[in-house]
Design a protein that fits this description.
Blueprint: H1 10-13, H2 33-38, H3 52-86, H4 89-117, H5 124-150
C-alpha cells in the first residue's frame, strides 16, 4: 500500500493549498513594498513616538556612546601598535575586544541619535509609520554588524 507523490495531498508535502510552490516557508513568495505598507498595521506591535524626555535621554546615551567609541578606538590603536612591536598575543586579544566594543558603541550611538530625531513629524500616523521603517532599518544594520562581529 504505497502512495505516490501525485496522490499525496499538498498539505502533507508542505505546499500551500493555494497552489503556490514555495515549500514550507514560502521562500519564493515575492512581496513588494506596497503590500508591506498596507499590512504595516496588522500583526505588529504599535510603535510609540518618543516623548521629549525620552528624546533627551536618547541624546545623552548617543553622546556617551560616541565618547565610548573614541575611547575604544584609542585602546584598539594602542593595544595593536604595541602588540605589533612586541608580538604580544594578549594585546591582540585586547584589541579585538576593543574593536567589538567600538562596534557595539557605534550601533548604540547610531540607534539613539535616530531615536532622538524621530517622531518630529506633525502627523502622528505618518510619524509612527516612519518610525517603524527607521527601526526596521536599524535592526537590519545591527543584525549585519552582529553577524560580522561573530565571524
Amino acid at each position: 500500500m504505497s502512495m505516490q507523490d501525485d496522490e499525496v495531498p499538498p498539505q502533507m508535502m508542505g505546499a500551500p493549498a493555494g497552489g503556490m510552490s514555495g515549500g514550507l516557508r514560502m521562500r519564493a513568495r515575492q512581496v513588494n513594498s506596497a503590500e508591506m505598507d498596507d499590512e504595516d498595521d496588522e500583526g505588529f506591535v504599535s510603535q510609540d513616538v518618543p516623548t521629549p524626555q525620552e528624546r533627551r535621554w536618547s541624546s545623552w546615551v548617543a553622546f556617551m556612546s560616541g565618547a565610548d567609541m573614541f575611547m575604544s578606538l584609542a585602546i584598539l590603536v594602542v593595544s595593536w601598535s604595541f602588540a605589533y612591536k612586541d608580538a604580544g598575543v594578549s594585546l591582540w586579544c585586547m584589541g579585538l575586544q576593543a574593536l567589538s566594543h567600538f562596534l557595539s558603541s557605534s550601533m548604540l550611538a547610531f540607534r539613539f541619535v535616530g531615536e532622538a530625531r524621530s517622531g518630529l513629524h506633525a502627523d502622528e500616523a505618518v510619524a509612527t509609520r516612519l518610525l517603524r521603517k527607521e527601526r526596521r532599518r536599524w535592526l537590519l544594520r545591527e543584525q549585519g554588524v552582529a553577524i560580522c562581529t561573530g565571524l
